[in-house]
Amino acid sequence: MKRTEVPDVLVVGGGPAGMAAAIVASEYGAKVRIVDENAWLGGQLVKQTHKFFGSARHYAGSRGIDICARLVKEAEERDVEVMLDSPVVGVFDGLVIVAERQERLAAMRPGCTILATGAGENAIAFPGWTLPGVMTAGAAQTFVNVHRIRIGHRAVVAGSGNVGLIVAYQLEQVGINVAAIVEAMPSIGGWGVHAAKVRKLGIPILTGHTIAEARGTEHVESVTIQRVDKAFRPVSGTEEILEADIVCLAVGMNSRTRLAEMAGCTLMHVPALGGKVPVHSAGMETSIPGFFVAGDISGIEEASTAIEEGRLAGLSAARTLEAVSGVEYEERRSAYIEALAELRSGPFGLARREAKEEVVKSHERRYA
Amino acid sequence: MTQLRRSGVLGEAELSCCPGVPGAERLAGGACAVMECSEEIPCNPCEADCPRGAICIGRDVTSRPTLDAKQCVGCGICVPRCPGLAIFVVDLSRDDGDRVTIPYEFLPLPKAGDPVQGLDREGARTCNAKVLSVNAGAQNDRTAAVTLWVPKGFGMRVRFFKREPKGVPHGATG
Amino acid sequence: MSNAGRTRIREHPVLGPLAEAPECTIIVDSQPLTARVGEPVLAALLANGIHVVRRSEKRNEPRGLFCGIGLCTDCMVTVNGLPNTRSCVTLVEPGMVIGTRKVEP
Predict the structure, then answer these.
(1) Do the Cβ atoms of A138 and C52 come within 8 Å?
(2) I need a surface site. Which of A76, A175, A324, C58 has the fewest CB within 10 A?
(3) Distance (Å) from the C-alpha of residue C23 to the closest C-alpha of chain B?
(4) Mean per-residue pLDDT, B1-6
(5) Phi and psi (nearest 5°) for A229?
(6) In chain C, what is the straight-line distance between the N-terminal and C-terminal CA atoms, in Å?
């Protein structure tokens, strides 16, 4: 596809959701273009060195980095056009403005648009949080696994969700000692197997604790942790000073919804999904016909759900373009929805499952 | 709240309830997989690769794996396969000590004959141990399977190790 | 300050050996430093033991890596005369001139 041609489907974001959407849409002959702000495809997958969970259709047992390579290859084989270093800077009434290679603005009016912009990380503030050495868990993971920089010697990780537990393990894998994982809640946030992995390395997981302060002149030199009571108030007299030069904040993520808001999509606040998310149908269509979302932009989950939602959005886009027959559409749609239900089953999926049902119901009530 | 939820360490009661953990009798009879997977999370790669079909998760992929201990011969194929690094092979049947195979993803890899310190589920040093073998074949996709000799009685306690001399950390790499 | 010799992760249990990449010289605050072509400027700074990449406007406080993916703007430096350039997503080119202070080099 020549650069000047208008794509049938524009996918904003080339992470797992975006690539999966592009692959499925292109299966039906749609001209698909992925635009991504990064210099590479893969989103968060490029830094995931661990083996993934889920089932075979989610490439379970394979490392995130290899799943990434696989999706990139498949997108290439299907002639999906890719524009890297090209952030989308505006969406106005179906017109999408892309800063091509950050050099010039290009406007396009695609047949359908799929926003797969993922999520950003939350932060907590405490005295000293601006010191070099305090960073998000994702930053630590990016610089260690992608840029291969040993960012320090000893870390304190704030947050015991899967991200905090996994990043702690990955820091130890490169010889960065994790002094402690602190968790304000009375129990561990992430899966037991991830917690067990770091406990047997000797990393303490201190529930009911928070970071009180990071100290140092030009860089973090020590971290003060403190117990919190049931109302999450710090308990004075329980301060403990840990020697560390890194603090990793793994305190949750938030959907990157600015483009959806700009486009005029209706959003709703869903705490179980991380905050404000675009209202969407079971087929991933937003309040604006022809405008879809997939992956963490539609709620904080995992790479496996991102891939399935991407597939679903790609299929729905193809349907909108009348490139797929009704029967095949129904069949594949059901399969993807069932796969998503499977990923959201079990006790760890309950809150997300119910939250997604609320989102879809909301869309049904107002836009179906 | 289970001990695992509270501390990240499986308690004895939780362990004995795991459908993937064989009973004492089977463990005394020879090498066997021990699947310390106690929570319902969507995950099933262990099931497909067992050559004897001894692992069952079934249609509902959040089910905890069940081990058919009679079918299991302790071949260890499942050890590197588990994304949670929660599967071990344990042999409590020998007189000279126990053996435990541990998934290991650190550098430098140990070598057969290396003396190490056996660590328990809390990462505490619990006994002296010795590396018997290291399986780092390509089929394990960079999860090495390290088999340790540990003293009798430690096969269900040791789940990690630190190399000697003391103070040389795992993950110390160039 | 970190030991620069140990800062690059040359061996990794999953990622394997660090791939070869052409090296080049960049000028940071008038000092020549070695960097790998194509790595983010911030990675080159960290590899050379430079963790403070900026000082805050009002209180002159040290700032550096925070989000690592171009969202937070805490890592901004001046590159080839262009101020407010996010060093975590700007890639090294041979001969780049970088300033980590408020005043351009």
Answers:
(1) no
(2) C58
(3) 19
(4) 94
(5) -85, -175
(6) 23
Residue A173 CA to residue A192 CA, distance in Å, equals 19
Looking at A222, A249, A276, the residue that finishes a domain is A249
Q: Do A60 and B170 touch (CB under 8 A)?
A: no
pLDDT at C102: 60
Condensed to tens digits (0 to 9), the pLDDT of residues B43-88 reads 999 999 999 999 999 999 999 999 999 999 999 999 999 999 999 9
- Identity of the residue in A55, A174, A188 whose CB atom sits nearest the CB atom of B42: A55
Measure CB to CB from residue C11 to each of B105, B142, B173 and give the nearest one.
Answer: B173
Answer whether B54's CB lies under 8 Å from B68's CB.
yes
- Answer whether A143 sits within 8 Å of C39, measured CB to CB: no
- pLDDT tens profile A137-167: 999 999 999 999 999 999 999 999 999 999 9
Kindly list the residues from chain C whose CB atom is less than 8 angstroms away from the CB atom of residue A246. Answer: none
Assigned domain for C3 exists? no
pLDDT the model gives residue A103: 85
The reported pLDDT for the residue numbered B174 is: 36
CATH of residue A88: 3.50.50.60
Q: Which of A115, A116, A98, A119 is nearest to A107 (CA)?
A: A98
A267 part of a folded domain? yes
The set of chains that have 3 or more CB pairs under 8 A with A is B, C
Number of domains in chain A: 2
Q: Please name the residue of chain C whose CA is at the shortest distance from the CA of residue A40.
A: C89
Task: Show the domain range for C40.
Answer: 21-99
Cis peptide before B65 (omega within 30 of 0): no
Provide mean pLDDT across the span A264-292: 98
- Note down the domain range covering A330: 9-120+253-367
Quick one: closest CA in C to A47, which residue?
Answer: C15
B-chain residues near C14 (CB < 8 A): 105, 142
Same domain, A242 and A258: no
CATH number of the domain within which C56 lies: 3.10.20.440
How far B106 CA sits from the closest chain C CA (Å)? 5
- Phi-psi sector, C12: left (phi>0), alpha (psi -120 to 50), beta: beta
Q: What is the pLDDT of residue A4?
A: 60
Q: Compare CB distances from B41 to A173, A188, A346 and report the shortest one's residue.
A: A346
> For A61, which of B81, B106, B159 is closest by C-beta distance?
B81
For residue range C49-99, what is the model confidence (pLDDT) as tens digits? 999 999 998 899 999 999 999 999 999 999 999 999 999 999 999 999 999
Domain ranges of chain B: 3-163
Contact between residue C105 and residue C30 where contact means Cβ atoms under 8 Å apart: yes
Tokens of B13: 């009661």
Identify the residue among C3, C9, C14 best suited for mutation to test binding to B, counting B beta carbons within 10 A and taking the highest.
Answer: C14
pLDDT at C105: 39
CA distance B148 to B93: 14
Contact: C7, A150; criterion CB under 8 Å:
yes
Would you place residue C5 in the very low, low, confident or very high pLDDT band (cuts 50, 70, 90)?
low
Q: Provide residues of B within 8 Å CB-CB of chain C.
A: 105-107, 142, 171, 173-174
pLDDT in tens, A64-90: 999 999 999 999 999 999 999 999 999
Number of domains into which chain C is organized: 1
A130 inside domain: yes
